Every structure is written in C-alpha cells, then in structure tokens.
Q: What sequence folds into this?
C-alpha cells in the first residue's frame, strides 16, 4: 500500500509529464533508478537551433508549511545525485550519448496550486 506522500508524488510527476508533453517534449523514461539515485523523467526536447536535447527532469512537490520551496529543495547534494544518476543512465543507454543534455526542474507548490518549469536549472 502506498503512502499519501508517495501518491501525491506520483500525481505530481504525472502532472509534470503532461505539462512537458504539452510543451513539445517527448517521454523517454520515467522513474529511472540506480544506486546513485532516481531521475523522475527523462524527456527529449529541443534546445538552441532546434537541436534535440536529452532532458533529465527533477519534479519537486511542496505543500503548505514547507521549510523551503520546491525549487530551493534541489540543493547541491540533490544536484550531485541527479548528475550521477544521469551519467548512469547514459552508460546504460549509450545510444543517447551523442545528444546534448540538460537538467530541468518542475516545482509544484500545492499551497498555491502553481507549477513552475525551470529549464537548464543547473549545470554540470
């Protein structure tokens, strides 16, 4: 049986996926897990000059009373884990190695029912 928190997280990831597909991105993988961590969504999008870009998406959900915002919760430690998980994904899927990559964050604030997409949220 899943917890309320897990169900909310899954709903947030589905909302983020639907939003990104509506913005023209295509789903490659969801909930990619390895020892280094998890990548919520792996999408294929367009970068500058319409070049295909592999997008690693972190979905963060925060409710009323959270100590930090959803966006602020993607701190240096979380960024390092995402980078390691992305490297693992690329080792496991070498056909994506030639694509440029970026890290996006979808921040969901349940208190204000607001979704914020931050493309290229941090650099490796």
A:
């Amino acid at each position: 049986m899943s917890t309320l928190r897990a169900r909310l997280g899954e709903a947030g990831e589905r909302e983020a996926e639907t939003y990104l597909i509506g913005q023209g991105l295509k789903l490659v993988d969801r909930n990619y897990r390895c020892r280094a961590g998890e990548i919520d969504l792996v999408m294929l999008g367009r970068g500058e000059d319409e070049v295909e870009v592999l997008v690693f998406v972190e979905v963060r959900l925060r409710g009323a009373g959270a100590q930090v915002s959803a966006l602020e919760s993607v701190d240096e430690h979380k960024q390092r884990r995402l980078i390691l998980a992305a490297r693992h994904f690329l080792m496991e899927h070498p056909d994506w190695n030639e694509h440029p990559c970026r890290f996006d964050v979808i921040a969901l604030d349940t208190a204000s029912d607001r979704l914020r997409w931050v493309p290229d949220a941090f650099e490796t």
